[in-house]
Amino acid sequence: MKKLTALLVALAMLLTLTALGSLSSFAEENVALNKPVTVELHNGVEAPASYWRPEFLVDGLAQDTTDGNALGWAFGTANGVTDFSANAYINLGGVYTITSIKVVAMKWLPDTTVPGPYTLYLSNGGETWTKVAANGAGEHGAGQTKTYTVDPVDATHVRLEITAHSGHWPDPSGASLSGLGDIEVYGTKKSGSDAPTPVEISSASAGDVKNVWLRSNQPTDSDTMKILFRTNKDFTQFSIPAFWASNPPTYGSLKANIEVSLYKFDKDLETTLKGTPVASAKYLESLGDNNLAEPINVKGTGATLTSYNKNNHGFALVLDEPAKAGQYLAVIRNDAGEGSYLVLPSLAAASATYDTKFIKYFFNSDEESFEEAVQFSISLVDNGSFVELDNGSGGQGGEGGNPSTGSKAFAFAAIITLALAAAVVFKKRIFG
Fold first, then answer.
1. Which of the residues 59, 205, 387, 404 has an alpha carbon 20 to 30 A from that of 15?
2. Do 303 and 318 contact (CB within 8 A), yes or no?
3. Per-residue b/e over 82-107, b at no fewer than 16 CB within 10 Å?
4. Could you say which architecture CATH assigns to the domain 28-189?
5. pTM of the shown model
6. For residue 280, what are the β-bridge partners?
């Protein structure tokens, strides 16, 4: 009887500790706040202003002024175009039990620019979609917030579908514009499915800035930069923090193209490049030096090429699905033609965080050159790092000896041990 009582006490203590550590998971919150957003447009174009961006759909703000603020997301179609559609996808980064969705109209725009019919879908996995709410034409006015209650459902992704404008943008062209200020998704994290904390790691820290010029159709074949790296965690994005490009109005040159491809490394460069990229996208005719803060959002194969940050600096290849830990080759190319150039940020070797054991750069006909070390970053799904390159087959990466591996299991075991120890003390003091 004494042993049974001691075991029951230990179990109660363990359940209490677990419950205390999980209380926060029961509080409903806006689980879409600052989560990744990608968009698809058919016969439409994104509004060019820097204060209308897809990521502003989930920043928790619906501003009423254009003074450099993040107003929301907007897109337009030319006069007379009726066959169009727009989809915005929000990746929640984990499994959540969703109970409601709020859609906030843009305060600054008139009623005619709130989308007419729009539909909300949820998906657990991002492939099969379930309709959970719909708004009819003229039902959502400027500045209004509409709340849609959802029967509790587990989801990892949210989709907003727009198939019609409410009216015409008030200008002589008769073009149509639609926009929304914010989308808030409320729910709780699914028990046992904690989303990892994303971590961005960079190839270099601050230091003496140099530049790598990708000039198209030059004799030295200098239009392409290849970067070989290996990670011990899955990753969702490959990014270049800034760039400059040819400026036709000033220099009489061609506008540059930005093409980014990501390959799973296979034995060597030649074999790898003969394979099919796991993801790629291409942005045609960069605005160049006249506009360093140009918005980018181009859907490619397995990824979307977007601006690197909310100020529209740099560019990022955002993957549709995380790439597994392992060795990869990123290829950046400007193929616009002779006279065009794309300039990537580079740092002196002394400023590099990782040396050639971890990252290799290939420039000018695949000659390895650390002097042309481009600054780039990777967005990992969890705490991790670049690891030493596998000079054989490319390897799968794995955990790479990350000290955090198994930390959750260790912590759980430690709690059990402490609880049992407490039970022994309790037994000795109470039962003798």
1. 404
2. yes
3. eebebbbbbbbbebbbbebbebbbbe
4. Sandwich (2.60)
5. 0.53
6. 261, 301
